[in-house]
Design a protein that fits this description.
Elements (H helix, E strand, L loop, with lengths): L1 H20 L25
Keywords: Signal
Protein name: Lipoprotein
Length: about 45
Protein backbone atom coordinates (compact mmCIF):
# COMPACT_ATOMS: atom_id res chain seq x y z
CA UNK A 1 0.00 0.00 0.00
CA UNK A 2 2.86 2.41 0.79
CA UNK A 3 4.49 1.66 -2.54
CA UNK A 4 1.27 2.33 -4.44
CA UNK A 5 0.73 5.64 -2.62
CA UNK A 6 4.34 6.67 -3.21
CA UNK A 7 4.14 5.92 -6.94
CA UNK A 8 0.84 7.79 -7.23
CA UNK A 9 2.32 10.86 -5.55
CA UNK A 10 5.44 10.63 -7.70
CA UNK A 11 3.39 10.41 -10.91
CA UNK A 12 1.30 13.39 -9.80
CA UNK A 13 4.44 15.38 -9.07
CA UNK A 14 5.85 14.68 -12.53
CA UNK A 15 2.52 15.44 -14.24
CA UNK A 16 2.25 18.84 -12.53
CA UNK A 17 5.87 19.57 -13.40
CA UNK A 18 5.33 18.74 -17.07
CA UNK A 19 2.20 20.87 -17.28
CA UNK A 20 3.83 23.86 -15.61
CA UNK A 21 6.90 23.64 -17.84
CA UNK A 22 4.79 23.78 -21.00
CA UNK A 23 2.94 26.96 -20.06
CA UNK A 24 3.28 30.42 -21.59
CA UNK A 25 6.18 32.56 -20.48
CA UNK A 26 5.38 36.23 -19.99
CA UNK A 27 8.60 38.03 -19.14
CA UNK A 28 7.45 41.31 -20.61
CA UNK A 29 10.62 41.70 -22.67
CA UNK A 30 10.16 40.55 -26.30
CA UNK A 31 12.90 38.67 -28.10
CA UNK A 32 14.89 40.46 -30.77
CA UNK A 33 13.76 38.90 -34.05
CA UNK A 34 15.88 41.06 -36.39
CA UNK A 35 18.56 39.25 -38.43
CA UNK A 36 22.19 40.04 -37.74
CA UNK A 37 23.82 42.01 -40.58
CA UNK A 38 27.43 41.49 -39.48
CA UNK A 39 29.62 39.66 -42.00
CA UNK A 40 32.26 37.30 -40.70
CA UNK A 41 35.38 37.12 -42.88
CA UNK A 42 36.08 33.66 -44.29
CA UNK A 43 39.28 31.91 -43.32
CA UNK A 44 40.81 31.05 -46.72
CA UNK A 45 44.26 30.11 -45.35
CA UNK A 46 43.45 26.39 -45.16
Amino acid sequence: MKKKMFLTMLASFFAVGMLSACGDVEDGEPLDQEPIDEEVPADDDL
